[in-house]
## 1
Amino acid sequence: MLNIKVLGSGCAKCTKTAEIITAIANEKGICIALVKETNPEVIMDYKVMSTPAVVIDEKLVHWGSIPHRSMIESWLVG
Amino acid sequence: MLQIFSDLAGWLTFDLMGLEPNTKLADAIHFFIEDTTKIFALLLLMIYGIALVRASLNVERVRDYLAGKNRFVGYFMGSGFGAVTPFCSCSSIPVFLGFTSAGIPVGITMAFLITSPLINEVAVLLLVSLLGWQFTVIYVLVGMSVGMLAGAFLDSIRAERWLQSFAAKALEKGKAQASHSNSEGMISTSLTLAERHRVAKDETLGIFGRVWKWVIIGVGLGAALHGFVPDGWIEAHLGDGQWWSVPAVVIIGIPLYSNATGVIPVMESLITYGLPVGTTLAFCMSTVAASFPEFILLKQVMQWRLLAIVFAILLISFTLIGWIFNAIGPML
């Protein structure tokens, strides 16, 4: 199971990012645990400045925009 | 070239809708159609063009550049980057903390954050096309000065005392580490043309998606002014730049929240109708930069006291700007 965190202060783009990741994971039948992290202190600890950002198993994989579908697929499968 | 938008509006208003020219309603509708189509077309073209050029500029690079800079260079560059760096206001907290934890002084960070909503490529573009380049130059200079002076002032009163404790700790840690390089190798280097196109396309759609409704609201208000406020009313009541009118519009601007894109079409109408330049600038800047929702966000990293100081600085500087430009406006 992949532990996924979506970092962001709760803006529309962050919500959207979480939705897309969940949808793609469901579609592929991949089991994930997704958390939306809004605490600025935690976001700072990941050294992220542009949200939304995505952390997978404690590794920062993306920041600054809603990720494209192909990127999400490669994180989930790869 | 911009004539086609006027022609289009004329055709729609007078031929298609069959309205009588020179009536209030026809004037208002003509103005609305001309300005929205013109602004939408310019926005799409220009945002894409600008995004293509600056695709590799982002807040991470700005942070690395500003870290360890001399204060005075810092205020200038902080404010300058605030004007040109694309960044969504929902990221202000992470940006604030990112700058802070890189050891950048609070004043430089605030110079960046204050200038950012006031000046951006969309605002500049609209100003040039609606109000001319002289006004645009003044607007940009004034906006940057507000950011720089506010930043310098905040550092001079040691504003970092009133950060929330975790942010203050991050600043201390950042300053201690500032001698080392703080780029973490996170930032990719140069982009290919295809990548730039993708960034630019995303950004164009993103910005357009965010601002189109503001354009409609702004132009709609402008149209209402055009069509329905009696000629000469504004000029007769506020045209002399009465001193109290400036603080009054600054206060009115606080609960009104708009971004620069929405307020500029309104400015155009106000100026055409004889509102003095200083009063108009003060109103516009207050609407754009002093808004409660954004300030409440900053509460996560600042104590109330600092928040109140920043807010007061903005209101005072907008009032001063209004008075100064009302005084020198007739000479411009």
## 2
Amino acid sequence: MHAKFLGKIIRSFTYQSKDNLCRVQMMKSIWFLLRKDLLLEWREKNALSAIVLYVLATTFVIYQMFVVTEPSTWVVLYWVITLFAALNASAKSFIQERSEVHLYYYQLVSPQAMIMSKMVFNVILMTVLSILSTAAFGLLLGFPVKSFQIWLIISSVGSVGLALTFTMISAIAAKARNAGVLMTILGLPLVIPQMLVLVDLSKKALLVLAMKHYTGELMALLSIDVIVIVVALVFFPYLWKD
Amino acid sequence: MKGIYWKLLPILILVYVMIQGFLGEVPQREILHETIRNLYFHVPMWFTMTAMFTVSVVYSIVHLSTQNAKHDYYAVEFANIGILFGALGLTTGMIWAKFTWGAWWSFDPKQNGAAVTLLIYLAYMILRNSIDDNKNRGRVSAVYNVFAFSAMVPLIFIMPRLVDSLHPGAEGNPAFSGYDLDGNMRLVFYPAVVGWILLGIWMTDLRFRMRVIKDKIYESRF
């Protein structure tokens, strides 16, 4: 029984490499699902436009309330807004389509392909969003960060991590009754370590520092991402089957 | 009646810990004074909580492979008792902090990490309550339990070590590690850890059996 379970885990890794045909199938189905999501998004534009408006509205509210912000406050506000934007953006990943549609996908693609495609989609969405909110913040509240390149690296690594974690959480929350509220209470405490590292990194970016001062924490964030992806690949199949 | 004898062990150990813990000799130190006795009660709470959460996540993974409801019940009850011990650890720590650090809560990374861990596990319980289907509930919450455990490890064991902390064991504060070397205290502390963990297992066992009986009653009714 346990040997069988272990075999399942090992197979979920080797699945792609053992058999060339399988790998092609996997990449193909990820691309197929991703293209479907992107196409739907392009036609209806509901996720992106809602999130963009969300970021603009909250930035404007903050601008009206603060007018001028301290650099350290700026950083914290940026991450709070990005956090909630990521939460809202990825909440819809699995509840957007009806469960019958998921039953249909279930017969066509492997669960690993499904979760990977959703993760890639959310990562794309969040990267676009982080650039947009940097622009909105820079326009209204000023840009206290010294180096633009370093800020771009920090904010994109941060939003990738948030997108990955929240995609997995939304897969869990989608199975429960009140998915919206659950998303918040399941997700927020889990990303606290990431958020603390991100705020610390961003506060460093307010000073003039060489790249080597950031690498340690950036590596920590990337290793969290790797853990999330591995856990998702191993455990998502159990979530998806009904 | 079977399996009742091992339950004498936590009773005996904890009676010994109580008597020796409150009446025994302790080294007198600056700031700490008699609060050093908290070592017997506060620290074993965290040992027990970690043990309970670890067993819980193991049962969750086993449940995913076997789909046996009993493994799910063990997972949730170990997590429940873990939350109880975590809350007790937080409370004993806060009382101790009031007398040594001067405040109940002082934005210490260890306090924050412990509080967030409890939030995560409480969310696990809420997740369970909001899934109606029995089979789904076990599976989905088992997956979340894996996430909860992998968040607990950095929150309690890694992050507090990276930043300054008032807590004993960090720089700039009378640390327990120095006092632990006191042979008398070790004689009480190690049994205390074993005793509290055994008590936790006993409590889990009781709650698990209650759950099974409730299931039977429910089944006989419908």
